[in-house]
Please model this.
Amino acid sequence: MTNSLNPDNLGRMVREISAGGVVVRPAAEGWEMAAIEPQKESSGSRTTAKKKPAKVVLALPKGLVDPGEKPEQTALREVFEETGLTTVPIAKLADIKYVYVRSWGDKERVFKIVSFYLLRYESGEIDDIAQPMRIEVKRALWVPLEEAARKLAYRGERDAVRRAQEYLKSHSEI
Model:
């Protein structure tokens, strides 16, 4: 099996550049973080047989960098679009790199880089998002930051949250 992140393989892949944020705010019990529950892709027909409730998938708000946009601007825009929150950038946390296969359309292999930023909550109501965003986001919610790394579905995002926790521990002035 070849390493999919091998530079020789990347030349044949579609590339995507995205950015997102770990949004934090102080709360009585410590820091809280904004997470989203993405809409699930429709799986076709539904059966009436009883199934176990689907596991809730939580993720960080993120999206593609638009032409002419800087990744930090993308992170602020995507956080607002997907959570309803206005934020202030604090620090860049990480660039997460991975390969995935599109589950729609062309089934193309994609090399993706997502830049994550630590963002401080400024204003807005969580989950107050525009109706057209509901095709992407089922809901946005606050979760305790200490639990976030266990609750997020994706490893790279959990790593970004751990970096946010480390940053907050060493920068008490936030």
